[in-house]
Amino acid sequence: MTDTRKLRIVAAVVASFCALIVLVMALLIKHVITFQMALLMLIALFGLYFGFGVLVAVWRFIGKLE
After folding, report:
1. Distance between CA atoms of 23 and 32, rounded to whole angstroms?
2. How far apart are CA 55 and CA 10, in angstroms?
3. How many domains does the chain have?
4. pTM of the full predicted structure?
5. Is the backbone of residue 2 left (phi > 0), alpha (psi -120 to 50) or beta?
6. Domain residues for 51?
7. Any stretches that span the bilayer, and where are they (predicted)?
8. Which residue from 58, 19, 21, 63 is spatially nearest to 38, judged by alpha carbons?
9. Predicted pLDDT at 30
10. What average pLDDT does this structure show over 21-42?
């Protein structure tokens, strides 16, 4: 994989993460959701991104072992 492609993938992941954070904050500011619900959504979002990041890292590591 070229460096440019890796940077594009990282940029896309960071952009989607930031977009979802902005969406949750917008819902909080408009009083559609409560503070506790927004906090729960942000923690869950972080957990999902972290979990899938670990999953991809392990998958790539296993791919290099074979």
Report:
1. 11
2. 15
3. 1
4. 0.80
5. beta
6. 3-65
7. 7-29, 35-62
8. 21
9. 98
10. 97
